[in-house]
Amino acid sequence: MKPHICFLVSVLTVGTMLLTVEILPGGEIPKMTNTASAATESAASVPKAHAGEGIPVDTRNPLAGTKWRLLEIQSMDDTIGTVKPKNPSLFTMRLNSDGTVNMRLDCNSASGTWIFEPSDDGLSGRFEFGSLAATRALCSPPNLDERVLAQAKYIRGYLLRGGKLYLSLMADGGIYAWEPDTDKSSAANVPAAPEDGRPRNWIVTGVSRALNLREQPTITARIVASYAPGTILDNLGYQRGEDRIWCDVQQLGGGPRGYVAAEFLKPAVSPDGSVATGPDDSALRAGQGDFDATGQIPCAQYLGQPMTQCNFGVARVGGGYATVVITKPNGRSRAIFFRMGRPIGSNTSEADGYPEFRATKENDLHIIRIGDERYEIPDAVVLGG
User: Fold this and answer.
1) What is the mean pLDDT of the chain?
2) Residue-range definition of the domain harbouring residue 69
3) If pLDDT is split at 50, 70 and 90, which confidence band does 77 have?
4) What is the CATH number of the domain that holds 259?
5) Which of 92, 6, 7, 11 is nearest to 280 (CA)?
6) pTM across the whole model
């Protein structure tokens, strides 16, 4: 049996403004301020990091290449208090050295970009995400994934202290406390696949009826889902166990995450005939206006409104992975994310009420509805040619 290797893929974000935190002794909720002078004072009181704290010594960018696990969400509202995820290993964040971020949020995944402006010692300062490109699977309650996604755009500051990372929300909205993710099964054994050029997706093969998705990489672990032959899976890494390779996977577009035996997977061939490998940076490029093509597509913004034309730009990374940014008649934009040639979601937000995302296909035309909005996107926009 030839060993298979799997990996982690994602995309996204950016921002402005300054908000820093000061951690109080005794585990009290940090006090926050949004002034530059207070940020400098707070930074001056932070001890220098060292290897024993699990924080990189590189003060030029102490966050680059680090991976974190969500410890708790501290609210300034006493009626809410502190909320802790039931299983912190389901909420992880990797801040890649190239400025991208990959997040696991319960049964969903998200990706984007991050920026920071450090104070003199690099251990506090400004930190921001942009809007996150995320899957929209319905996770079992309580749905902390929705809370993290909704509040990520309001994060404005960071502080490293005591081996932990504190990300603070603007306007004293609260603090996200993260601890280093030192789980060897997820950190040491999972290769940095985007840099390794591994396939982004697998296809289920070699089973007569269904392939079981298990909670842990062992044949005795609980079955959480079953996949029919031909099902496309996201490649999120691998682990060795019981003399076999187990791939960490999630169904394309969202769903429970778990492990399947690697011998029943092979690289998925995309609609353009290629095997997509490497990182998907289409959303990042689209956010920077770095488009491969521009033009117009049919669109409508309200129920019953006749179709008109909207300008669009598309950033592609091959294999049917693309981000299409549409300029609506009111001047606002709508981003639609494609993976393996399939529309999987859009940049909906709390402000527009998270409208329902629906997609159908007629011949080579994707008909996409986001609430009352309607867009018609041909395959050629996504695949090129």
Assistant:
1) 79
2) 20-185
3) confident
4) 2.30.30.40
5) 11
6) 0.62
